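Minutes, project huddle
Topic: does the predicted pose make sense with 6-phosphogluconic acid bound?
PN asked that the exact inputs be recorded in the minutes so nobody has to dig through chat later. Recorded below.
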Amino acid sequence: MPRPVTLTYLVSPTAPEVAQAAAQLFTDAATKAVAARGRARIAISGGSTPKAMFALLADPAQPFLSAISWDKLFLYWVDERCVPPTDAESNYRMTNEVLLSKVPLAADHIFRMEGELEPEVAAARYESTIRNSFKLEGAETPTFDLILLGMGDDGHTASLFPHTEGLENITHIVIPNHVPQKDTWRITLTFPVIDQGREVAFLIEGPAKAQVLSDVFTGPYEYETYPSQLIRPASGKLTLLLDSAAASKLPAPDANTHTGTLELK
Ligand code: 6PG
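Predicted holo structure (C-alpha cells), as shared on screen:
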C-alpha cells in the first residue's frame, strides 16, 4: 500500500508566476541545505515546464542568481532522453542553454546523464556517479535535498511512463526504461530514490494537465496507469506548484494563501 502523504499545492494565476514560485522554492531549498550540510544536492527534470524557472535562476535582474551559493550546489538530473547532449530532445541541452551556460556552477558540480551511450551503460554509469558523489556504501541510496518533477498529460513523471518496466524497479538508483508509447529509451531515477528526497515538488502547468492531476491525486490508486502516484515521499510531504489552469479540477485552494492540501491515503 502507498505511504500516506500530505499534499500541499500552491496555485499561481499564470505560468510566469509558477516559474517565480519554483525559482524561490529552488533557492530556499538550496540555502537550507547549505546551512544544514554545507552543500545542496538537487535533481531536476527536463521537458518544457522548468525552462522558465531555469531562466529566472540565471537572470541577474532576479534575486536568485545572487542568493544561491553556486559553489556549494551540485546539480543532477531526474531523467534524460537517450540522445546526445546536443540533440534538441536533450534535457541537458535545454538546461545548458537557459541555465548552466549563464551561472557560475563549476563543471564538476554538474552531473549529466550520458544519453549518448547505450541505455544500460548510461544508467549503470550514472548510478556509479551518484554512488561516488554521495559516497554511498553497500545498498545505501542517495538523499537529494530537492527533487523537481514534472508530469506528463498521461500521468508519467521522471521517465516512469504508464505500463513500463521501470515502475517495478526498486533495486536500483538509476535505470534504463523502454517507453514503447514513444518507441524510445530513457534513463531515469527510480521512484524509491525520488521518494527519499528531503523535499519533492512537482511543477505542473496548463489546462492539458488538469484532468490527469485530478486523476492522479484524487482518483483511485492505479500507479501502472498513473505512475506519478508512485511519488509518496518518505518525508510525508509532497508539494505541487501549479497554475490556475492545471489546478482547475482540484478542490479550490484557500482564497488568501492560494494553497490547498490533500491527505493522500
Ligand atoms: C522529460 C521530463 C518529464 C517531464 C514531463 C512533463 O524528460 O520529459 O523529465 O518527466 O517532466 O514529461 O513535461 P512538460 O514539462 O514538457 O509538460
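Observations noted during the meeting:
- The CA atoms of residues 126 and 132 lie 10 Å apart.
- The mean pLDDT is 98.
No decisions taken; revisit at the next huddle.
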